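Model: You mentioned two targets. I'll fold them one after the other.
Researcher: Yes, keep them separate.
Model: Target one:
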Amino acid sequence: MGKKANNMDAADNDVIVVSDKKEKKIEVVKKAGKDGVETVPPEKERQNEFLKIGHNSDPSDVLITFVKNFYSQARDPTRFGIYKIPFKTFDTFLNSLKWLNNQINSNIKKELMEKDSKNQETVPENNTDRKNRFMPSQINWDQLKNLGITREYLEQKGLLDQMLQGRKTNQLIPISVQQGGAHVTTDAKLSLRQEQDGSVSLRIHGVKKEPELDRPYFGHVFSEEDKKNLRETGHLGRVVDLYDRSNAQHPSFISIDPLTKEITSIRAKGVYIPDDVSGVKLMDHEKEALRNGKEIFVEGMTARSGKEFDAYLRVDANERRVSYRFEEGLANIRKIGGVELNEQQRNDLTEGKAILVEGMVNKQTGELRDSYVKAADLATGKLQFTNFNPDSPEEKREIIIPRYIGQVLLTNEDRRELSEGKPIFLKDQVRASGETYDSFVRLHPATGDIQRSRTPEGFTEEVKVDIPKEISGVKVTAKMRADIQDGKAVEIKGAKAPDGTLVPTFVKMNKDTNLLSFYRENPDQAKKATIKQGADDTSNKQAPAEDKKSKSRKIG
């Protein structure tokens, strides 16, 4: 009895059929999951391998959508038809293959062309003030519930707004469908689509192992340079003509979804190129570069918080708009304080050396500022700005002689006296509040920091000890703080690089400047090893080298 009941249940189920118009054959779906779709020939002896799903149920529609999305990246999507066929009428369906192919060439193809045209041409153009394309009431929440997804989950993650705006979710969502003999568990992005009859359907964007760049994409064959750009940057870097289902060409942008590895495109006419971005007006040549798929660098943009920032801009087909790309890591830093770094400066910075950057502008006061810049931590890429060269020897410390102090332009005589370690008297200095004041000014002999006093004798040689609460994301304990203050090298266990990998990191307080120095090896152990080697090898002793005349400015 049990076996007969199972057979009856199977007869009431459906199977998914993939029809290949070009090869004049059909296949039946055997498996569908995050690893892809597997099919088998429609042979009677293999019917027990067919994937069977519940009849006329929402989960079955979701599974159909999943299979359609899998074949959407094919060489020519119009060559495939995806159908849900009642299992009990499967034999009749096989005998009607000729009729089915004729339908694909006419009515079905026409319907797909109309849907594609409507979907492409209704992309919202204003991406600086994106309005929702869909309403929450248009979403089939029961269908999402069958996937294990609730409205509260989407709202909490901030994903619902993205879907209502007509975009894919910017993160993967775990989905699960179980109906009859079919079970699919995978991670995917979700989006909404307007159908020809006005209804709204759910689209599932499954994860691929690699983007399918060796296949033509809507008539475009990717060159080796195209593949390189897409793999390294996620974007084609140019506009190319893509064919629609009526063989009409449309200039389009192409990008790779970084999470699903799905190739995504959008027609160029569907992307709005704004006149200004985050408070910065774009030049005509910059807007033209964006229209051509190029990337531009824009400085001085203002975030909603009021903080200024710099970033790269380019058209992202995944976002269907102009989007930002922020620099990460020392190797990607091209400007500091508005000053373009040359190749030598960039190389020195990534190697952990200090570089002198001149002509930086204080955005609040407009003063020119010169500073030595060095990576305070190679693991995180955080920069440290000092008025002295941290790579210069302590006994011959190189100090920057400023051009402005308190918004007062210094004379050559002022700068000469400061370089000799003498105090000078400056009138009409300006505070950040706009208040003016007079004071004696001197540069600290070890750090080059500006010191002020009411009298020429009121200066101090002390340097403020500054130990942060966290170093490379690791909390500084009381024991670590005490050891650092005592001048010991302390290992920062758990320090991570920007990519998340653990990086050996040691810190030690510079006794002359009381600033932290970062090392990849324990500097105390290295020093002991050097002393021991020198004591054992007296034959290699050398007389002290003569001091070389420094080209940098010094005090004293």
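Model: Target two:
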Amino acid sequence: MLLTKWGEALDRELPLPEYPRPQLKRESFLNLNGVWSCAFTQSSAPPEEFDGEILVPFAPESPLSGVGRVLQPGEYLWYRRSFSLPEGFNIGRVLLHFGAVDQVARVYLNGEDVCVHTGGYLPFSADITGLLREGENVLTVRVADGTDRSFHTRGKQKLKPGGIWYTPVSGIWQTVWCESVPLNYISSLFITPHLDDGSVELVCGGEGAVRAVIDGEAAYEFAAGEAAVLKLENIHPWTPEDPYLYRLELRLGEDRVESYFALRSVGIGPDRSGAKRLLLNGKPYFMNGLLDQGWWPDGLYTAPSDEALAFDIAAAKAMGFNLLRKHVKVEPARWYYHCDRLGMLVWQDMPNGGGKYSAATVSAPLLTGRHGRDDRYSAFGRREEEGRREFMEELLDMVSCLYNSPSIVMWVIFNEGWGQFDSDKCAEAVMELDPTRIIDRASGWHDQGTGELRSVHLYFDDYKYKPDKAGRCVVLSEFGGYALPISGHAVAAKPFGYKKFDSQEKFRRALMLLYDGQIRPACTKGLAAAVYTQLTDVETELNGLITYDRRVIKLSPADIQKIINVPPLK
């Protein structure tokens, strides 16, 4: 079994103790992570006894959970723990928060229904004030998860993992916590930067007058529930090279929250030669990145510590990359906070879902070069109207949830045809909610020929840049995938990679030839971004620049910097 150094040092009494929501932070915070009682049942009725323990927030399939068992379709996983509120904690309302629970969660407090939530990747909350008792309270959660046997979003989870598909993740996999707020409080916050006129637009949920203080100096007052555009005295754009964050304090009556924001803009436009480029702060900017799947050998979806979350981002930056494509997974809020403060651009994928994919449909562009229409629902595993509706709702919820993070510059709606449907309609809905970012409608293939972006995947042939016939900006959103197993740091099973190497020197030379012979020449001709597969190994997929246990970087960061370097665009 592989363990990271953070997994070895894990504090089982209180894992992941950090405040989980950096852009809406209050002093009120009761962390409910730790050892809970658990039980597996075949019935939806509560178990007669809880005969096991599980370490929250680690999925039962993960080593760190202490369970080591896959929740099967048709089964139920039950959690239970008791807690008491600290004296003086309740100042009006008490809110219960779950960072993420995969897949369908029903929550009870003191035997009473609290809420039901479907979807394994986004946070949800409930006001539990009226259900609380003096002294001890009993919190119970029931979870069901169909993994790849349902149309729900699932990312790369598979009941029979192997190759590019990985071990299932079920149940609670992000922090569980409580906070207390006044009766009237800041219930939501949306931040939109306007770099061109040096302002920031804020919309705060609540009632009454909001007071905002930026960087501890400039003060503003505006009405809650209405958009307020605040002119800034200090204009300091955010870039990966200079990730400046403005500190933001907000007060609404007795409620006080801490937050932050950045000034930056993204878009698509021509460079001096007329080639379509990705723009950062109005200037052509080559986004040189890595595919980042966010899996851990000991925690699966859950990083064993906040330091571990930051390690991946800092390591990618030390290698010279300025972009991470977060692949078919949504991370905890603290991961985006680390990208914001460290200076790492993010392309955020929507996790895929749908029924069983037809190999003939999904692979057709690889073999024939033809891209199918994505309104053929059955061919793409999207026959169920309920599943399509649920995906759209979750897509928009994801955009709303992550809207404030300045590091996110692109939304990726579908990947390689997995559960794809009506991509143009999905993109229109996202653009209506968030007109400030770029959208990749169909990363890889089954391109509908629309939008501003042509997104290409290539693993088996040499890449030669070709301008898009529709005049769109061209990005290479996946390529490479070179595998180098490192003895003692790889899962002991059949390794997977698109090209395999048996020595560090052969691996280094292959990467050099790849960037020298394909990526840099393409960049000079008009390629706007390149995303190498991938940051870390994942289970049997050994094509990472870092081993799965994060103990070995396969080449020195200085060597990788030299290999991937692309001159600045003009």
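Researcher: Noted. Anything on target two?
Model: The mean pLDDT is 96.
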